[in-house]
Design a protein that fits this description.
Strand content: 5-15%
Strand order of the largest sheet: 7-5-6-8
Number of strands: 8
Largest sheet: 4 strands, mixed
Helix content: 40-55%
Number of helices: 9
Number of domains: 3
Shape: elongated
């Protein structure tokens, strides 16, 4: 089952997607309904703190839900249904538990992902497909059986190979120090003289035969012990089969991670976007990064350009 820190990261991603889809929608509905007074209505919303200049207004997921629910009867009941209102209440509950470090279950994450996907579908948001894909990926991670990682396999093979080599060397040194040279000489056997009984009852004895033993051909995969008879000193010859092990090296992520090459990176926590040539472009790679194709798309979603 997914650990609680991972669930908190998943909730952070889902709330960032909700903000990306609903921030432009809330602003557009307020402007259409209240005209030039839309920002005054927005600033007077209880528990929503905004600057006097509307150009600097940035609403997170919690503020967006508060604005919609506070102005439901006068404004948002015309564009959303009671079903979406119930989903917003559930979203607020899970978000509050997430903000106050309360325990969160896998069902909470799944419920939040499904609710946000439905809310974005109701307003035809452009990022609804991304949220659905994220929700399905979380479900696969939840129900997929755990698979043992083979990351340490090369290291285990190296340890096993080194242990085998040490064992062979220890055996060879033992033969070197403890086995005499005579024991390593080629052994001989004596075949008893056969007794032949001839026709008529006569017996004929033959001489004993001592044939030399022919040593079997050595195998290169075995350890062969031989004696240096000329010097009178036993010499141990160890033939070791060498196995080459290649360790995979993880490549360094590209500067555009997690976006594609050339895309704009936007940080939903700071509401600042970074271009590929910016000073903080490569360092902006947390899990909540939002990708845009052009700076105009990022500014349309409420982000401002980085000063560096």
């Amino acid at each position: 089952m997914t650990s609680d820190p991972v669930r908190r990261i998943q909730i952070d991603q889902l709330l960032a997607e909700f903000r990306q889809g609903y921030a432009p929608f809330v602003m557009a509905v307020l402007k259409t309904t209240h005209g030039t007074e839309w920002y005054s209505v927005l600033r007077n919303t209880p528990e929503v703190r905004l600057p006097a200049d509307s150009q600097q207004a940035q609403l997170d997921a919690t503020a967006l839900v508060r604005v919609i629910l506070a102005h439901w009867d006068s404004t948002f009941s015309r564009v959303l249904t009671p079903t979406e209102r119930s989903l917003l209440f559930e979203l607020r509950t899970i978000r509050n538990r997430w903000a106050h470090q309360a325990p969160l279950s896998a069902d909470d994450v799944d419920r939040l992902g499904d609710n946000i996907a439905r809310l974005l579908t109701a307003i035809r948001a452009s990022n609804v497909d991304a949220v659905i894909a994220l929700r399905d990926e979380m479900r696969m991670q939840r129900y997929q059986p755990p698979v043992q990682s083979a990351t340490n396999l090369p290291g285990m093979l190296m340890i096993a190979g080194a242990s085998l080599l040490i064992a062979i060397l220890v055996i060879a040194l033992y033969f070197w120090e403890h086995v005499p040279a005579s024991a390593l000489a080629a052994p001989t056997i004596t075949i008893p003289a056969p007794t032949l009984r001839l026709k008529g009852g006569s017996v004929m004895h033959t001489a004993s035969i001592t044939p030399p033993l022919v040593a079997p051909s050595p195998d290169i995969t075995q350890t062969v012990a031989a004696a240096n008879v000329a010097n009178g000193t036993p010499t141990a010859v160890v033939i070791v089969k060498v196995v080459q092990i290649t360790v995979a090296v993880t490549e360094t992520p590209v500067p555009s991670f997690p976006c594609q090459a050339g895309q704009i990176k936007a940080n939903p926590k700071t509401m600042i976007y970074h271009i590929p040539t910016g000073a903080f472009y490569a360092m902006t790679r947390n899990s909540a990064v939002i990708c845009f194709d052009t700076p105009a798309d990022a500014e349309k979603a409420g982000y401002r350009a980085s000063k560096r």
